[in-house]
Write a structure and sequence with these properties.
The chain is α/β, with parallel strands linked by helices. The protein contains 14 helices and eleven strands. Helix 13 packs parallel to helix 14.
């Protein structure tokens, strides 16, 4: 009887090891995929910290002669930064003029950008529709048109998505298809969306029809993911959302700013990350945590959101994190202290993917921009060290 038990245990161990080995090699791609809630790259579980290079392509889009991203991508790659999150379209309606008037030139410029990433073996989180109002403004509809599957807004979104995914699905540098940026922060608010910039192609004013709910953006998220999956069944898809407001559930159902409990937060996380998505996108800054999750703090907030993601069989993606001087920190010393706390928690919590905000962005030189030459360079060295230790 004893020998039979030993034999049974031995067989069981062999089966377990066989299954683990099979699992490790279930998906073998040079870009990340998500399998059973785990991030896999090159046949193995994967984890990395990258950076947002927000305007790497945007600067070229506005000035086709500006290819300064080439030196930036080269430098990041040579210093062990494995991926960048980047906007590949226009922020304002006016920025889409090249695509609308000369699609061939637009794609020629984007082809060159993708080839540069491939040359330096750096991954790309491609964000397609960064600004929530831009596509509705281009086609002359209110922002609520994101909720209408038959709208011009959705038709435009589908066409552009098909073009991008079909063209670049063969690139090993494309890691994630991302819908937009922080759409969840403009939903269920007391007032409709108000941002305008007529000089850049927006309407002069907004109306009640520019109000969005979480159900509206979720409709758009699903329609985007469906278009992607028709063409690319493997790569992760991200909403581009920020972390949930601490009152998301109460704003959605009671129109109040009362704080949500953990059950309510998990419900909203579940509802705003449809099954078509295999990553949970959040953006985290010190003030975000202080405002929305004061009783949890940085460590417990990240652990809680990572655990929630795993319960949904999804991977946590911190698409933005950082400490901006003047906004999140009062001095250089305060900035460094808060950054060290944040990056240490991301490291210790073993967050699968996270991206620093922001690399070489002249628009935020005084507050957030990090380069290898300025006084925030230490942030890049922290990231380099973490990635090096992960490889070991």
């Amino acid at each position: 009887m004893y020998k039979m038990k030993i034999k049974f245990i031995y067989v069981l161990l062999v089966l377990v090891l066989f299954n683990l080995n099979s699992y490790s090699f279930a998906q073998c791609f040079p870009y990340p995929t998500v399998e059973n809630g785990m991030l896999i790259k090159d046949c193995q579980p994967y984890r990395a910290v990258g950076v947002n290079y927000f305007d790497a392509f945007y600067r070229t889009l506005r000035n086709p002669a500006d290819k300064s991203y080439k030196e930036g991508v080269k430098k990041l790659s040579q210093n062990g930064i494995p991926f960048i999150r980047v906007m590949i379209s226009g922020f304002w309606p006016k920025d889409w003029e090249l695509y609308l008037k000369n699609k061939e030139q637009y794609f020629s410029l984007l082809d060159e950008f993708i080839r540069t990433a491939e040359e330096y073996k750096i991954g790309l989180v491609l964000n397609l529709f960064w600004n929530v109002s831009t596509i509705p403004d281009i086609v002359g509809e209110p922002i609520s048109a994101w909720s209408d599957p038959n709208s011009k807004t959705i038709a435009f979104m589908k066409e552009f998505t098909r073009e991008i995914v079909s063209r670049y699905k063969g690139s090993p540098s494309v890691w994630i298809w991302e819908f937009g940026n922080e759409y969840n922060l403009v939903v269920d608010l007391p007032k409709p969306y108000e941002k305008v910039a007529p000089q850049y192609g927006t309407p002069a004013k907004r109306t009640e029809k520019d109000r969005l709910s979480w159900k509206d953006i979720t409709t758009a998220f699903v329609l985007f993911a469906n278009e992607v999956r028709k063409i690319d069944p493997y790569r992760p898809i991200s909403t581009g959302n920020s972390v949930l407001r601490g009152s998301s559930y109460h704003l959605a159902f009671f129109k109040t700013w009362d704080k949500d409990n953990q059950k309510q937060l998990f419900y909203m996380l579940h509802m705003t990350n449809p099954s078509e998505y295999d990553v949970v996108s959040i953006h985290l800054y010190p003030t975000t945590i202080e405002t929305n999750y004061p009783k949890y703090g940085i460590y417990h907030t990240i652990k809680m959101l990572k655990n929630y993601s795993e319960k949904l069989d999804k991977v946590l993606f911190i698409g933005e994190f950082g400490v901006c001087r003047g906004e999140h920190a009062t001095s250089k010393e305060d900035e460094k202290r808060k950054f060290e706390e944040l990056i240490t928690v991301i490291r210790d919590a073993e967050v699968p993917l996270a991206a620093l905000w922001v690399y070489d962005f002249k628009g935020q030189d005084k507050t957030c921009s990090v380069t290898f030459e300025n006084d925030r360079a230490y942030q890049l060295y922290y990231i380099m060290k973490i990635n090096s230790n992960i490889k070991k």
